[in-house]
Amino acid sequence: MSKKSTLFLESHHLQNPFFGFGQFNYHLLKALKEQDVSGLNITLNTANPEKWRNEFGAAYVYKKYRPLSRYPLVRTRKKYDIWHSLNQNTKIEPYHDIPYVLTVHNITYIKNTKNYMEEDVHQRFQKKLSRSSAITYISEYAKKSTHDFFDIPKVPEYVIYNGNPISDITISSNYSPSVAVNEPFLFSIGEFTARKNFKSLIRMLELIPKMHLVIAGKNTTKEAQEIKDLITNKGLSNRIVLPGKISEEDKQWYYQNCEAFVFPSLREGFGLPIIEAMRFGKPVFTSNNTSLPEIGGDIARYWDHYDPKYMAHALLEGLKGIQINKKEYQAKAIKRANSFNWDIAAKQYLEVYNNLLNRSYEY
User: Fold this and answer.
1) CA 118 → CA 87, 107, 266, distances in Å?
2) What is each CA distance from 210 to 247, 259, 316, in whole angstroms?
3) CA 258 to chain centre
């Protein structure tokens, strides 16, 4: 029996499996588990090994994540054949100089284009890029923006799209969420930060009197309080629901029952909620910037700017147009959503690993 190659997945963001990096970690690992990984001995770095051992079983080796491992002197000393950093922001690095895969989701927002490299977060990202043996990006936009601002080593680069975690609609027809809405409503989701641009939805809703709005997601931020104040000042408390973090079942109910999904984000490396909404055949209205047109394709409708009258008009006219050929739109939206598949993504990451292993054996 030939010796297995060892792969270390820096996956400690599994501790937050329903948001951002954690969601990426979870769905990639879930899909990798179903692939033929017989030639690999894969180690997961996780704060809760028992939890993930119960879910993933013997597919992986489980190493307990310890915060001290962020510091150089206490880095993991085992020499793996490949180290894969599943996001670009982690401070956890290998002790040895070994083959290194970096996945780039979205570069940290650059406020000052002249002096941004003086910031620690950008210096750390550049170091991760410089030590990489292969780089994967979750969108062409993520790749382009990285090339625009950072020095990229001459290594293999790949664009591997995330999959849609909602492959099947699992809620029953009589399911009711913890916070139900009985009027026609628009739906959005995300952490309440400035880049999500939720305030534009509130100003737009003021001009659409027959519509309600649900914005789900972590709403304990400073931005969330500003949004709550804006809702009060606009007199919209009776038409806007902020349920906070929601369950997977509640999320599916909101997708299934909304009139449209609205996502006016200013910056996205991928824009996962767009394809989640499309899985339900829903009209999608989103920003015409960063990765969003790449992911939404010709199915989504796009806002070029955020003037409330313009946004409201574009939404209402877009809904009228979709209604004319509703079944055709739904079929196209579902088809596009299903084209983003985690099994496909997992196979592509395995190809990256195998290419790197074969190259390293040639040295």
Assistant:
1) 21, 15, 24
2) 27, 12, 11
3) 21
